[in-house]
Each structure stands twice: as C-alpha cells, then as structure tokens.
Specification:
Chain lengths: 498, 317
C-alpha cells in the first residue's frame, strides 16, 4: 500500500492518471462509447509500460467515465453510457426546471464520494472476497435480479400496469438472439445482425437520447422549460448547492456506495445493474417517493454514487480469481495478462501493490474529474439553455458517431434511431422508459440464473430457498411485491374506520 | 516544335499504358496500413495473441498494422467481415473456423459464409485447453469419468462454444455422458462455477482457470505434448485420445476470397518470419500458447481432422 501510495507522488504517475481521466470523461460523455472502448484503445499503448503506470492509466479511465456520461444524461437526457440512463430520470427534470448546474454538481460530488466509498469498502472486503464470491451462485443471483425486476412496479409509481407492460416489452426484446443456454437462435429472423441480440448500447442510447431528440425538436425551445427564465439563473450558486445536497445526505450516498460495491463484487452484473438497483432501492426507502422521476436530488445521488462505487468492487473478483466483475474489468483482465500477471491468489499475495495502485488511481482520478467537473459546471450547465435547433443536430451527430464507432456497424445507427422512435411512442402512450430499460437489462440475467439453478439442482426448485442468502433475498422480493397491496389494504381499512 | 511535343506526349502515353502490363512496374505492396480483424473482444486470448504478434509483422511489412476487434456470435461476425471485405490485401483477419464447422457438421445448418473460399495465409499458433475438475470433488481422473453412473456436468459459455465442443469430443472418445451448465459470460467465470461446486468439470486455458488454482485442478491437457506449467498433467494423446488436439483456439490468419496471390504471399512471408521471432516464441511459452507455424495445406488438413471429430458428435446425436 505504501509503495503504491508513494508512486502517486511521481509526476509521471499523476500525468498518466490525468490522461486517463481526460480520456474517460471524453469517452463517457460521447453517447455510445464509454470505458470499454477507451480501455480497449489504451490497452496496446501500455504494452511496454511499467505495469503500475499502466494500472494508473486504466484506473483513471475507469473511474472518470461515469461522471462524463452523466453530463449529457442530465443536460440533454442522453446517457453517455448505459448505466447513466438511471441519472436521466431525475437529472433531466432538474435541468428542465433550470437546475442543470445543481444536478451536474450533485453528480460530480456523488461520483467523488462514490469512488472513495467504493475504494474503502473494497479494501475492507478484501479478506472476505472468497466467501462473498462463492456465496453468490445462480440461485442467489436469481433472487437478486428478481428483486430488481419487481422494482419495476415501484419505478413506475402511479403507472403500475403500464410499467409492468413496459418491463415485459423490455424483457421480450432482450430475448432476441442466440441463446447459449439452449444453443438456439430466438427471433433472429435469419438475420446475422440479430445473432447477438439487440445490442445494449445503441438500444439504450436510442431509447433515451433519440426519443428525447424527437420530443425536443417537436417541442422546440431549450432543455430549460419555457416558463423558467434562464436569465435569472445563478449557475455558481447552484454548483455550491449541489455539493451541499450530497454532503448533507451521508446515509444515502453511503447506502448507495455499499450497493454499488456489493453489485460490483458479484461477477456478471456491472454498472447498469448497480445504478438501477441503487436507484430503485432509494426510491423504495425515501421519505419523498413522489419526487423520484421528477427531479429528485436523492435519485441522482443514488444512481451516480453506486455507478462509481462499483468500480472498486468489480476489481475484487478480477484480481482475486481472474473473473471480471464488469465489462471494463474484462479488458483490465486482458491488461493484467498482457503485463505477465496472472490474476488469482498469487497476484493478491505477490502484487498487492498493483491492486492498491488501481484503487488509489481510481480515487485520484475521481478527485481530478470531480474537481474539473465542479469548476466547469457553471459553463457546462449553459448547454441546457441553448435552443433545440442548435443542440439537436449536435446531439444527433454524437449519437450517430458514438453508436457507429462502437462496432463500426452502420446498422447499429439505424437501430438507435428505431429505438428512439419506439421510445418516443412509448412515452406518448405513457409507458415509463425506466421499466423498459430495467426489463431489457435484467431480463436475460434472470432467465440465465433461473435455468442454471435448475440444472445445478437437477430440476428441484428447493435450490431457491436452500441457502440463507437466497432465502433472505426471496423474502425481500416477496415483501416488495406485497408492500403496495398491504398499503392499499391499510388505507382502505383506515378509510372505513374513519 | 509542335510535332515533337505531340510525339513526346504519344510516347509518354504508350509508356504509361504499357507500364500497367509489366508485373514489376505495379505499385509496391503494401503501401498503406493493413487492417487485422480480431473476431473476439479486446483483452481476450485471440486479441492478446494478435497484439503480441503484430508489432513484429509491422516491422517486416514496413507499414502500420491496425488491429480491429469485431466480436460477436462466437467468432462468426468477425470472420464474415473479413470474408466480405475488399480483396486487396489491406484487410485480413484471424479467422476462427470452428463455429462454421459446428453450424455445418453439428447443427446441420448451412454456414453464413463459404469459409472454404478464404485465402488462408498462415497459422501461427494454437491455444489448447485443459480439462479441469474441482479439487476434492467426486471426479479426480478420467477413469472416474468412465465409471460415472450419471452424466458429467460441465460448465460452458454456451452450447456450440469451444468448451462445449471439447467436452463432447472427449466424451465420444472416452465414453462418458455429458450434461451442460451453460451461459457463463467467460471461461474464467465458468471456472468459478466448478470451484463453487455448481458442476463437475470444465475446459479452459491456464489464464481461464489459473485464478481458481486453489479450488480447481487440471486433469488432462489437450495438447500434443505436456504443458510446461503443469508437467505432471498427462495429455489426452498419452491417455489414448489424440483427436482432441484439433480443439481449442486455432490462430489462423486469412484474407478475403479473391485476394491476389502475390499479396497473400507477401503477408504469408511476414507471418512466417514473425511467428519465428524469439520474443513471440517467449510470449507463447509464458502464456501456454503452442507456437505452431503451419502453411495453408496443413491448416486445411487440420480443418478436415476437426470435421471428422465433429461428424462423430453428429452420429452420437
């Protein structure tokens, strides 16, 4: 730890972290790109580099992408990366009412506390990584995901039926493609494009960004709503308010950091699940549920803190077992091997300095990113008052370039536009996009965990209640399902007695 | 004066026109960057091999080599991109034939491309897998597999994947029954499944199960000779199952059908030299990748051997 810490004083190390932060913010802010692309681009350049400097670069990229992606999510309703979609739900309504700087500032501060919280939790959990990773098998995984799916009902508060239908549509769309469980192609219509299913990034970017562009262009004006006078907005005061908003809610960001780190540790979930789960749990636990989806400060803190905290957590299975905890760490795993390091117990024993280097790099990069982010917030927030005729072509260009660059496939751009039209229509008919996104992201994970559990148990359903963790998660899921019914029954009884 | 200008112009026109028909007068190849398509994601086994090899190829060719990852559909997508690229020698790729062979000979389905039309340039290497089991589990030798009273449960990334094929191919030779716990995102995550006790066994390279070395142990190596990292682990050939050597990650570079032969030969010579580079050989030893420089005829022979193995699977089905 001391060796890794002392290397941070090296100007080369700081430069590399800052370079990573710059790359991360840029790739995060461009819809469709994100950390996987940034890491893949950086990977070959680090081939001959000192391994610790290479780790600093990777850490710089991984940690700063989240904040970069939150800026367009808040100001333009265009998530830079899929996990930032959860930030759109409250960030954009805040920007609409002229509080764009406050929302961006909340995001910068939440990312900062999230990365520190994530690093602290990761270091604390280091001795427990084996029991945690081994405790989460397919049945536990299934209940965790089922818990998230049930949250669709909460996420679409006041619109439960449409929310569930939306979730079902998302789930159905996620079923398209080759099923590795059955070795069969589902709904691919003999199109090789659909072999791997509907690609996540163009779909999510299209669903949110393009649908908003259509909305935006048909409505005219700017992000800031027509009744709000943009001339009177004090962007600097809002930035300071954003910092205070986060710091005055320690329990919320601590809870979100724990959720993010915890989800990061479990291999196969990733940032999208971390931010959505944290968001919906926040929605369930809040005293002001009606504010969620309408510009809730807590909503932004929940999603952005968890999204950043998951980076530290995802490192644990990567370094301890060579199992990537997220798509970013899958690239990182390749980088370890490229530098002649075999992740596993031996790496933890012999190269712990590199693990600390990554964690410290994540924190330092986030300090730099959040600092620069807060300094530039008053300037960035002005995007929200630009007229749509200026901003819409710019965003559309970003979407087209971003979705194309990811796989160099022009059909991805067409899919993003189709998803946008679909998203626009769904909005028009009152279907919450969050439920479609949750169904789309969590659906395949739930299906896989269900089938894997049944193969392990040779078809016995008892596997879903055999372990204490599975049992607790099942109770939480059932309780969440029943909670609205119980509340309605209580209200009815109160009304009768009154 | 006018006449001499006309004559000079006519002479120049004749020279230019005739230059096109003189072989030696054609533009040198390569004169611009060459793109190499990798059909799997950045950071994976195939990608690492290409990134270790291409700096050497770049030096030999004298032009930059751009590595492009085009993952999807178990390696099919990248191969299709190479197949459909302009056959000018400036786009080549690491073509993984196995998924197309699975489509044709295991699933009895017409492959998306006529893979036999690829201009095979060269095979540089082969990443072969180990069969591994949980430490202290029920199955500790291939004999235990043979005498099992129930199907052996294998972890795999998907039905039709390389780990699935390896389990099925060994099963038809050894005579055990298989069951699959599928859907793991990576072979490393699959190794966790075995370590946790979700399944009995799995197939993977050292970098897949090495991180789980306290929980799983390799039982058989699918290579031709014993792997230096695990000298005590016998090969499948030693145990009487030599056909398994065809399985695993085969690193074959190909050009689109119709690429000019002279250009293919330039690329082949570059790969021939690069695969004998001491640094690349050292990389192979370090990562347990068998460096196996092979000419196209040898590659097609290996494809035919794989087909024979897959036909056995079809008969079994």
């Amino acid at each position: 730890m001391i060796l890794a810490g002392s290397r941070l004083a090296d100007p080369a190390a700081l430069s590399v972290i800052l370079l990573g932060a710059l790359m991360g913010v840029t790739f995060g802010a461009l819809p469709g790109l994100g950390s996987v692309v940034a890491l893949a681009i950086a990977l070959p350049f680090t081939y001959g580099m000192d391994p610790m400097l290479a780790m600093f670069l990777y850490a710089g990229i991984m940690s700063s992408v989240t904040f970069g992606g939150s800026v367009p999510a808040i100001l333009l309703n265009t998530p830079g990366t899929p996990p930032n979609a959860a930030t759109c739900f409250d960030g954009y309504p805040m920007a609409r009412r002229g509080e764009g700087a406050r929302a961006v500032s909340i995001s910068a501060t939440a990312c900062f506390v999230g990365s520190i919280g994530g690093a602290v939790i990761t270091i604390a959990l280091l001795p427990l990584v084996t029991p945690i990773v081994f405790a989460f098998g397919p049945p536990e995984f299934f209940w965790l995901i089922a818990f998230g799916l049930v949250m669709i009902a909460f996420a679409s508060r006041g619109n439960v039926i449409r929310g569930i239908i939306g979730g079902g549509i998302g789930l159905l769309l996620s079923m398209v493609g080759y099923s590795e469980m059955y070795g069969a192609f589902r709904y691919t219509f003999d199109s090789d494009y659909l072999w791997d299913g509907i690609p996540l990034v163009p779909f999510v970017v299209g669903l949110f960004a393009v649908s908003e562009l259509i909305n935006y262009s048909s409505r005219g004006g700017a992000t800031v709503g027509g009744e709000v006078q943009s001339e009177g907005i004090n962007w600097r005061a809002q930035t300071l308010q954003g910092i205070r908003d986060v710091l005055s809610r320690p329990l919320i960001w601590m809870r979100s950091a724990c959720i993010g780190s915890g989800i990061g540790i479990i291999p196969g979930l990733g940032g999208g699940v971390a931010s959505f789960m944290s968001y919906v749990i926040g929605m369930q636990r809040t005293r002001e549920p009606d504010l969620y989806g309408k510009g809730s400060v807590e909503g932004i803190i929940a999603s952005e803190t968890a999204n950043d905290a998951k980076d530290g957590g995802a490192l644990l299975p990567t370094v301890a077992f060579g199992i990537p905890g997220s798509p970013d760490t899958a690239i990182l795993l390749g980088a370890f091997i490229l530098h002649g390091l075999q992740p596993g117990p031996a790496l933890l024993r012999d190269h712990m300095d590199l693990v600390y280097a990554l964690l410290f790099g994540i924190v330092v990069s986030q300090v730099a990113t959040s600092g620069i982010g807060l300094l530039t917030t008053p300037l960035l927030a002005r995007i929200s008052v630009l007229k749509s005729r200026w901003i819409a072509p710019f965003v559309l260009t970003l979407v087209v370039i971003g979705t194309y660059m990811l796989r160099a496939n022009i059909v991805d751009v067409g899919l993003a536009i189709a998803a946008g039209i679909f998203g626009y229509l769904m909005r028009r008919f009152g279907f919450p996009l969050i439920s479609i996104a949750i169904g789309f992201i969590l659906g395949p994970l739930a299906e896989k965990a269900l089938l894997q559990s049944l193969i392990i148990s040779d078809g016995s359903y008892a596997i879903f209640v055999e372990s204490p963790i599975a049992l607790v998660l099942m109770i939480c899921t059932v309780a969440t399902l029943l909670a609205p019914l119980v509340a309605a029954w209580r209200r009815a009884r109160k009304a009768r007695s009154a | 004066m006018k006449t001499s200008t006309k004559r000079l112009t006519a002479l120049a026109a004749v020279l230019i026109a005739s230059a096109a028909f003189i072989p030696g007068a054609q533009a040198a190849y390569p004169e611009k960057p060459v793109s190499v398509i990798v059909p799997f994601g950045a950071g994976g086994g195939f990608d690492q091999m290409v990134r270790a090899l291409m700096p050497k190829v770049e030096k030999i060719l004298g032009v930059p080599v751009a590595i492009k990852n085009n993952p999807g559909s178990g390696g099919r997508r990248g191969a299709i991109v190479v197949h459909k690229s302009k056959p000018d020698g400036y786009t080549i790729g690491l073509t993984f034939f196995t998924p197309f062979l699975v489509d044709e000979y295991v699933h009895n389905k017409k492959p998306a491309i006529d893979y036999r039309k690829f201009e095979v340039i060269y095979k540089t290497s082969h990443s072969r897998h180990f069969l591994y089991v949980a430490k202290g589990g029920k199955f500790q030798s291939l004999k235990d597999f043979e005498s099992a009273q129930r199907p052996i449960k294998f972890v795999t990334t998907g039905i039709g994947s390389s780990s699935w094929l390896a389990a099925e191919a060994l099963a038809v030779q050894v005579g055990y029954k298989t069951q699959f716990l599928s859907g793991y995102k990576t072979l490393s995550a699959a190794a966790l499944g075995v370590g946790r006790g979700d399944a009995d066994a799995g197939f993977g390279a050292i970098h897949h199960f090495g991180g789980m070395s306290e929980h799983v142990k390799p039982l058989v190596y699918m290579g031709i000779k014993r792997e230096a990292h695990y000298p005590d682990v016998p090969t499948a050939a030693e145990l009487g199952y030599p056909k398994s050597k065809a399985l695993g990650g085969i690193h074959v570079f190909s050009a689109p059908p119709g690429t000019p032969k002279d250009r293919v030969e330039v690329l082949r010579e570059a790969l021939r030299k690069a695969s004998r580079d001491p640094e690349f050989i050292a990389w192979g030893k370090e990562t347990a990748t068998d460096i196996e420089p092979t000419e196209p005829a040898g590659v097609w022979k290996e494809v035919d051997e794989t087909v024979e193995l897959f036909k056995l699977l079809k008969i079994k089905k």
